[in-house]
Design a protein that fits this description.
Keywords: Coiled coil
Low-confidence stretches: none
InterPro entries: DUF1492, RNA_pol_sigma_r3/r4-like
Number of helices: 6
Pfam families: DUF1492 (PF07374)
Radius of gyration: 28 Å
Shape: rod-shaped
Helix content: over 70%
Strand content: under 5%
Mean pLDDT: 85
Order of helices and strands: HHHHHH
Length: about 160
């Protein structure tokens, strides 16, 4: 009995975070798309400008001992290449971090949705409106044709059903 009450509190706490998790997932999806775009842009820039081939040519000249009048140009290109590669590495690390957090948030949301899906449709509707959508209790009562007292009774019943 004590274990069931502890689980009910845990699920109730998860339900309270549902709205936050949904908003967090949307935010992370936008950030992920932004970093995908940045990474793609940097990769395109590196290949389009031919920076890699220019640096390769400089080092071929150096290895062969050939003099080059364009050392300053190559050095600027090398600095630009290093800065671009550092930025690319940083973007990829941030992207990976965002993707890990997004997977975690998505798992938590799916866990909540699975638990809610086990309930009767009326209770599903109530929990979704109350916790995920954060609809005010007056509007929920009006939509579901119930009183405030009945709303909170139904919430308690739902929490107890989810704990079993």
């Amino acid at each position: 009995m004590v274990l069931a009450l502890a689980e009910a509190v845990t699920m109730e706490q998860k339900l309270r975070r549902w709205n936050y998790l949904e908003r967090r997932r949307q935010h992370l999806e936008r950030r992920k798309a932004m970093y995908e775009e940045r990474i793609e842009r940097l990769r395109d820039e590196l290949t389009r400008e031919g920076i890699l081939s220019a640096i390769t040519q400089k080092y071929e000249h150096m290895l062969l001992g050939l003099p080059s009048a364009k050392d300053k140009i190559y050095d600027r290109q090398a600095e630009h290449l290093v800065a671009s590669l550092d930025a690319l590495e940083e973007y990829i690390a941030k992207y990976d971090s965002i993707e890990r957090e997004l997977r975690s948030v998505t798992r938590e949301i799916e866990e909540i949705e699975d638990a809610v899906a086990c309930l009767e449709p009326r209770y599903q509707q109530l929990l979704t409106m109350f916790h995920r959508d954060k609809i005010p209790w007056r509007d929920i009562c009006e939509t579901m044709y119930i009183s405030k007292t009945r709303l909170y009774e139904m919430l308690e019943t739902a929490y107890q059903m989810m704990a079993i």
